[in-house]
Amino acid sequence: xxxxxxxxxxxxxxxxxxxxxxxxxxxxxxxxxxxxxxxxxxxxxxxxxxxxxxxxxxxxxxxxxxxxxxxxxxxxxxxxxxxxxxxxxxxxxxxxxxxxxxxxxxxxxxxxxxxxxxxxxxxxxxxxxxxxxxxxxxxxxxxxxxxxxxxxxxx
Length: 155
Description:
By secondary structure, the protein is of the alpha+beta class. Residues 149-155 have low confidence and may be disordered. Helices cover 30% and strands 32% of the residues. The N and C termini lie far apart (61 Å). The protein is globular, with a radius of gyration of 20 Å. The chain has one domain (16-153): Bacterial Protein-export protein SecB (Roll), CATH 3.10.420. It has helices spanning 33-38, 90-93, 98-127, 141-146; strands at residues 16-29, 46-55, 60-71, 76-88. The protein is built from four helices and four strands, in the order βαβββααα. It has a four-stranded antiparallel sheet with strand order 1-4-3-2.
């Protein structure tokens, strides 16, 4: 006979609640489409990231994760920004000010939430061109932001 146990699992709650995600900006340029169609320059791509935020209201903050991907040889360049509108869970922050909690939110939680959207949109938009699809490699993007002293100046 199997013994049943009533296990209660404490539900972990995120510090952020995501309300909506959208593409903030998109720009794609290429000078030499023939060169890129002939060869794959994926290994020569340079990736830069930027994180910024703005208050929309007292309770909602818009956090934008942007990337600029470029290659020198073909002069291919894609800039894409993905924004998420978040609220900070009042129960978790224990009445801490938004200014005190914001750096932690920006460098950890929001990036972890927005990065998969950025990768997906980059692949979708680049796949619509007659060039090769740009796939942002999977890596720990939070490591990039750990070394930055200013959130808005990450490149």
